[in-house]
Amino acid sequence: MKLETIVREYRHWHLTIAVIGNALFVVGSVLFFKIFEAWQTLAVWMFVVGSALMLVGALGEVAKARFEKRERDGG
User: Fold this and answer.
1) Which residues, other chains included, contact 23 with Cβ-Cβ below 8 Å and sequence gap of 6+?
2) What is the reported pLDDT for 75?
3) Domain coordinates in residue numbering, the chain
4) Interatomic CA distance for residues 10 and 15, integer angstroms
5) Can you tell me the distance from the alpha carbon of 41 to that of 63, in angstroms, rounded to the nearest whole number?
6) Chain Cα centroid distance, residue 55
7) Residue closest to 24 by CA, chosen among 41, 60, 57, 49
8) Average pLDDT over residues 54-67
9) Average pLDDT across the chain, whole number
10) How many angstroms separate the CA atoms of 12 and 19, rounded?
11) Non-local CB neighbours of 50 within 8 Å, separated by 6+ positions
């Protein structure tokens, strides 16, 4: 299966991945409050995983935009 097909046909997946990444990032932020000090290691991992997922989601959107631009430009 071509990357273009994956990006176009499964757009909901990279959007879902991005939303999950954003949610992990927000929850990880909350876990850095003093009251949750015992959870800081988990918070760090939520930041790392959340950031990676947000990057994957953003890359999917960029790829989709590039494929659509190429199609509009006739190439």
Assistant:
1) 50
2) 63
3) 3-72
4) 9
5) 33
6) 5
7) 49
8) 87
9) 89
10) 10
11) 20, 21, 22, 23, 24, 25, 28
Query: Can you give the pTM of this predicted structure?
Result: 0.79
Residue 46: exposed, middle, or buried by beta-carbon count in 10 A (0-12, 13-18, 19+)? Answer: buried
pLDDT band, very low/low/confident/very high, at 4 (cuts 50, 70, 90)? confident
CA separation, residue 6 to residues 18, 24, 29, 38, 60 (Å): 16, 25, 32, 41, 9
Instruction: With beta carbons less than 8 A apart as the criterion, state whether 23 and 48 touch.
Output: no
Where would I find the H helices in 1-75?
3-9, 11-30, 40-72
